[in-house]
Target: SURF1-like protein
Amino acid sequence: MRGLRATRGSIATRSAPQCARTTAAARILPPRAVHSRRISSTVSRSNKQPAADDPNFVSIVDLQPQTVRAGKRHGPGILLLALIPITAFFLGTWQVQRLDWKTRLIAKFEDRLIREPLPLPPHIDPSVVGEFDYRRVLATGRFRHDQEMLVGPRMRDGQDGFMVITPLERKDGSTILVNRGWISKKHRSQRTRPDSLVQGTVTVEGLLREPWKKNMFTPENRPDKGEFYFPDVHQMAALTGSQPVWIEVTMEPEYMRMVDYEARGIPFGRPAEVNLRNNHAQYIFTW
Model:
């Protein structure tokens, strides 16, 4: 019996380490068990309390706004933007004043046009011509075709041509400059237009005008070559021994008459109307 108990005790003793190894081996989990544990840990973390429900959580919307400035506090761009409406206001106001001035000026000239033609006095003070600008006048005398001057080129109805400037020698001995009108370029030579060389005493009706002003794009006249690009009244008067008085012949714009005059090379005068541009209302809306 004692031998049997001893044998059983030895068997128990041997089996104890074997059970311990079995228990340790059971603690070593397979890969699926490890993966399941990671998933369970992730799920447990996701079940944590959200930040929005945290009583200490502060949203960015609840923060005080802050202005972020880059560079200088007030750059030149801000000043330029501020000057734009101020400049536009002053320019618009200036154009309103210009519109009123131009409207009054045109009305004054149109009032002069409806008056009866005034006989031109023998001697005229050039300094007061501006007070009679666009005034209809009559002048009698004889054309000096030998001193004729052509100003151009001048376009009319798409054709190139010239303005015919002829001194008018009056009976009292004074001479004035007369802009007789437009002729085609093909009639530049007097030999091609004998009907335009009126002889004897003539009476012309036209507008007394102020001397023209040359713009910066117009070339200088070359009288030595007979080339005139703009009517320099004082220069032409000095060349012909005339008074610096400028008259523009007026005619009714009759189509058949214009066709006949153009074919024969006879200068055709301008209509009796005010041809001043008045675009200031458009400029007001622009500014």
Summary: Residues 118-264 form one domain. The helical segments are 2-27, 31-46, 76-113, 233-240, 255-264, 280-286.
